[in-house]
Amino acid sequence: MLKSLYIDPEKCTGCLQCEMACSLENTGIFNPSQSRIKVFSFEDAGRKVPYTCTQCDEAWCMQACPVDAIKLDKHTGAKVVEEETCVGCKVCTISCPFGTINYVAETGKVQKCDLCGGDPACAAACPTEAITFVDANWTGLERMRTWAARANEASL
Amino acid sequence: MGWTRKILRVNLTEGTCKAEDLNMTWAKDYLGSRGLATKYLVEEMDPKVDPLSPENKLIMATGPLTGTMASTGGRYTVVTKGPLTGAIACSNSGGYFGAEMKFAGWDMIIFEGRSEKPVYLMLENDRAELKDASHLWGTSTWHTEEQIKKDNQDPQIRVSSIGKAGENQVLFSCVVNDLHRAAGRSGVGAVMGSKNLKAVALRGTKGVSGIEDFTEFAKVTKEKKAILAENAVTGQGLPTYGTQVLMNVINEMGALPTRNHKSVQFEDANAISAEAMAKPRESDGKAQLVTNAACFGCTIACGRISKIDKEHFTVVNKPQYWGASGGLEYEAAWALGAANGVNDLDALQYANLICNEQGMDPISFGATIGAVMEMYENGTLDEAAIGVKAPFGSAAALCELVDMTANGVGFGVEIGLGSKRLCEKYGQPELSMSVKGQEFPAYDARGIQGMGLTYATSNRGACHLRSYTVASEVLGIPVKTDPLTTDGKPELVMAFQDATAAFDSSGLCIFTSFAWSLADIQPQIDAACEGEWSLEKLSQVGERIWNMEKMFNLEAGLTKDDDRLPKRLTTEPAEMGPAKGLVSGVPEMLPKYYEIRGWDTEGHPKAETKARLGL
What we know:
With 156 residues, chain A is an alpha+beta fold. Chain A is 26% helix and 21% strand. The radius of gyration of chain A is 17 Å and the shape is globular.
C-alpha cells in the first residue's frame, strides 16, 4: 500500500518536534534550519500550519531537473534527490509550485522530503497526530469519519 | 556535551561583542541557564550595585537541553539584579528564542554597561552586531519584533525585546519574546531599558550538534515524552484547560486571594475560569479561547491563544487587538481579576494583551492595582489622585490603568513603582501584598500553608515557581500533603526548591515536574552532557544554586526581615472556606526551615554548609 503524509493543521501546537526529528534524521543533529518540513505561524488567526512536499505524481521538480538528479522511489512514491548527481542549478526550486524543494548553501545541493525511506520521522515525532503517514488513497478518511459521526449524531 | 561551550560578552558602553569559551568547571557544578548564569553574575559583579546602573549585568542563558528534542527543551533565563526587589532576579521564558540562541552557537549572552543610544543586538550565528534602535525606541514589543524582521529582510529571526514599560523603567517590566512569552518577573525589562538595550535578535542555522550520545538521547527523550502524554495533568489537564484549570479548584480550597488578599474566595471565580474561556460569549456567540499552543519542543502545549469580542468596550475601534493572541494564563487571570474583584473576562484579556505588548508582568501589575483599589476604598486615594474612579471590581479602571502604566502616563508612573513603594509613599506599607517588594502570585498563604513559606523564602521575592508545593498540597504530586497544616512543610519546600533549581538550569520547563521527577530528567541530562550526571549530583547542584542565590541576596544587603510575609497574612485569619480561622504559619516554619537548610538563626548559610556545597 502506498502511503502519504497527511497534515491536519488544526491539531498542530507549533512545538517543532517535526522539524527537530527531520533534521536529526537527515543531518544527524538538531537543526530546524535544515528541516524539510516547516511549521508556519499565522499569529492573527492563532494557527500553526506544517507544510512539506506532497510528492506530486508528475513532479515538476523531477521533470525540470536537467541532470536527472531527482528519482522516483517506487517503493514509497517519494521523489528523491540524488546528491551526487545534483549540480545545484536550482531549476527545480523555480519549477516547484509549492516551494518545498530548496537549495542548501552549505552543501551546494538541493534538498526535499524523501519520506525517510517509508517511515517519516516527522510523523513519528508529532505529539498530537497533526502529521500522520496514512494510506495514500484514503487521506480523507479521518475527515470523513468526523463528518460521519456528526451525521450519525444528527440522525439519533 | 549539551553546551555549545561559547558565550558572547556584549559591552554596551564600549559597543563591543566578544566570544569567550564557557567555563566548563562552572558548567559541571551549576549545569546551565539559571544556575550557570547566576554563577557568572556572582563571580563578576558586586551584589551591592544599583540594579539600574551600568554596573549591573544582564545575562540571557540557555541550558544544556535547550534546543534539543527533549520535551519542553526551549527555555532560557534572564539573570540580573532585580530593580523591584534588590535581590537576585532570574526570570525564565519559553517560546522559540532560547532554542534559537543554541542554534546560533551560544550558551549565553552577557550584557554589560550602558549604551549611549538605543541599540539592539543582531546575532546571526558567529556574527554579532550592535545596531541602532532609535526607530524602535518608544514602540511596543510587537512592533519591534516585526520591524527587526523587516529591516533585516528575514522572517525567521527570533526576537526578545522590551516595550515602553521597560524603556520607562517600570519596576515590574519584563522581557517579551515571540510576541507573548516573557521573562516576566522582578523587573528584568527595566534593566534592559536602563542599558538602552531595546532588543536581542537571533538567527541560528548551526543547530545543536554537541549531544554526547545521540542514539541514547533520542531513545530516552522519547520514553520520557510518553510519560508526559500519559499523565492526567500534562497529558490532559494542561493542554485542554491550560493553567487556568486551577481557578475553580483553588477558589474552592479557600486559597484564591481576592481584593488585595482581604478575602480568600472570589464569588465570580467561575466567570474568569478555564471553563468560562471555552464557553461561547453571550455577546458574539464565540468563545474567548481559540486554541492551545506550545513553546519550542513542548509536547504538553499548555499555552492559551484567545480573541476578545470586537464589540467589547476595551477594543471598539482598535482592530490591532482583534486578532488571536496569548492568554489568559491562570496567574494573569487571577492577578488582573480576583485580586481586584474584576469579573469581566474580556477586560482581563485586554489588560493581559497590553502587558504583553508593552512588556509588563501582569502578576505584579494586577496585584499593585489591588493595592490601589484598596487605598481608593479606604479613602487614601481619590479620583483626582488616580485619574479614574477605582473601586474593587471596576473593569473600566483596570483597563484605564493598564494603558496609563504601560505608557507612563499620569498615575500610571506611580503604579509602575510596584505595590511596595506605592503603599509606602501613601503611608500604608502593610497593604502591599509582597515579599522583598515582589507581589504574590495566585495562592493564598493561609489556605495553602506551604506556599506561604515558598513566598517568604523565595530568593527572587514572592513567587510560586521556586517551590510549587501546590503540586503536593493540592494535586497530590508526588505525595498528597494537607494544605492546612505546617507539618513537614519546611522539608517539602526545601526539596521542591532544590529540585526546581536543577530543572530550571537544564533548559526544560518546570511544568514537566507534574509528571517527571528529577529521576526523569537525570537520564536526559546524562545522555546529552559529558561526564557523569547522577541523581545525587543533580540534587546537590540544585541545593548549591539555591544557597548561591541566597548568599548573593545577603551580600546585597537583604536580611531575615526580608523573609517575612505582610501582616495581613499572619494576623488576619481567613474568613471563609476550608481555611477559615487560619493565618499563615510562616513565623513558626521559618526557624525550622533555616535549620534544615544548614543556615544560622539569621538565615546565613553556616560555614559547614558552604563547605559541603563547595561555595
